[in-house]
Amino acid sequence: MKHTFKCDGSTAVVRTEKGLVRGYEYDGLTIFKGIPYAKARRFHRPEPCEAWDDSLDCTSYGFVCPLLATERPNGELYVPHRYWIMDEDCQNLNIWTKSCDDKKRPVIVWLHGGGFEAGSAIEHEAYDGAAMADLGDVVVVSINHRLNVLGYFDLSDFGPEYENSGNAGGDDIIAALKWIHKNIAAFGGDPGNVTVFGQSGGGMKVTTLLQSPEADGLYHKGIIMSGVVGSLLPDQTGSGREFAEAILQELGLHEVHELEAVKFDRLADAYNKLKPIFAEQGKYIGSAPHPNRFYAGEPDANAFQKETKDIPLLIGSVYGEFMGFMPQQNKRTKEGEAATRTALAGMLGVEKAGHVEELYAKAYPERSFADIFNMDFVFRAPQIPYVQKRAAINDHTYVYLFNENTALDEKCPWHCYDVPFFFHNTEMVPSTAKESTEQIEDAIFSAVMAFARTGSPATDKLPGWSACQPGQEHTMLFQKNPEVVTNHDHELMSIMAPAMSQMMMQFKKEDAEKVQH
């Protein structure tokens, strides 16, 4: 294939509210990297950038937020990664578009994974927005923002200037959405049709935006991929005063203002040392959104914001998630299924285990019973009541479950495995290389593009897909032969989730580290 490239003083130059930005053209796309959307002092709310006179070179990715620890490259067959330069000046975004014209394409904004502690807009190779922008004729935006102690550390007890320091990372995301609202038309996008989507921590950020009043009206649809976690995150409702005072003491400082100037490495070391101590005592440890007047808290304990109750949502997870990283417990043979049956009986008792086997056969008739111990509950279990609560207030909540095994030893799909399918980037991830991949990728991608355009994922590449209703969760199973099932695993999940929680406690550290985010 012959590639095309152009980058000069007059190509891919766009005027934003703060000045001209210059990107480049490559293979029919116009690409911008590292555009600043705001600036911020540590622990403070973001502010507008200063205007610039000359055109700003936006051909290189911007800084990503500093992490609490140096990461060790691993798990590249599971989730290929990219590593980048870290700095606190990380409020920047990237744009892929077919043309900077007036066509008003749907805008799709990617919020990266890594919980609220880690990750970046470019961390996974599959986060690249070129294929999505090209094949879907949409404008793709990915965002960097503050994380961990920099983005989510409540210091509100120390004065009004820190009133929302516990959600500084969320404030950055909202600032980016405001920038998009004001500027994206110049990049060929429609500010009146913005879809926010993310996986894992990125999905959690979508659920957070739904509960953040300042974000109202800045987006119009949401896709939550493996991002409904219920009570998985530690309680963030308490004050951060005690934790902050302990960090001050650890660093030999006296005033909270001094934390703004201390080198990040020292701050991170103190935070990492004290966090497990405070967590053990059930105290506030930060690194997640803090409920206050800026953030209403998750709807498992609160109502959905009435202002966002009609936002269409596409919500889903993958069959294996974190359990997918674990070795297959038993082989998919008669002997392996018999061993699974024995283990389950030991866990639940013979009678209940027999009932579970019947439920599993109905829920997953295409799967071997040996797969049951690789079934996710971390995301799927809390997602069920979340969806029901959502379906009770609107009629455009759609659910999927990615249910195709991987090309790596036919393992159950793991956390992050669906990301390249959504971006149409499976060719970047070796473990997706299966005969059925292209068919599944095309079906998923067409559903995502349809949802971004209309708020419904209906497409001729998939069976009829109805929105969820109270008491009825219609779930699209993304697999070689896709199908829609209703409440297919609800009773199974109600029995297995508590049992699997105990099994998860045995999750080996080396298995957990096979992929970072």
Outline:
This protein has helices spanning 130-136, 148-151, 168-183, 201-209, 241-251, 264-280, 334-348, 350-363, 380-391, 419-423, 437-454, 490-504, 509-512, and strands at 5-6, 13-16, 19-22, 24-26, 29-36, 56-57, 92-97, 105-111, 139-143, 189-199, 221-225, 313-318, 397-402, 474-478, 483-486. By secondary structure, the chain is of the alpha/beta class.
Describe it.
- The chain has 517 residues and is of the alpha/beta class.
- The chain contains 13 helices and 15 strands.
- A twelve-stranded mixed beta sheet has the order 1-4-5-7-9-8-10-11-12-13-14-15, sandwiched between helices. Strands 2-3-6 form a three-stranded mixed beta sheet, with no helix packed on it.
- The protein is globular, with a radius of gyration of 23 Å.
- The chain starts with a strand and ends in a 5-residue tail after the last helix.
Keywords summarizing the entry:
517 residues; alpha/beta; 13 helices; 28% helix; globular
Give the topology string: H per helix, E per strand. Answer: EEEEEEEEHEHHEHEHHEHHHEHHEEHH
**What is the structural class?**
alpha/beta
User: What average pLDDT do the residues reach?
Assistant: 94
Distance between the termini: 33 Å
User: With helices defined by DSSP (H or I, 4 residues minimum), what is the helix count?
Assistant: 13
The strand count comes to 15
Rg, alpha carbons:
23 Å
Oligomer: single chain
Which spans have pLDDT < 50 for at least 5 consecutive residues? none
What's the arrangement of strands in the largest beta sheet?
A: 1-4-5-7-9-8-10-11-12-13-14-15
Major sheet size, sense and barrel closure: 12 strands, mixed
Our estimate of the beta-strand percent is 15-25%
The dominant shape is globular
Q: Percentage of helical residues?
A: 25-40%
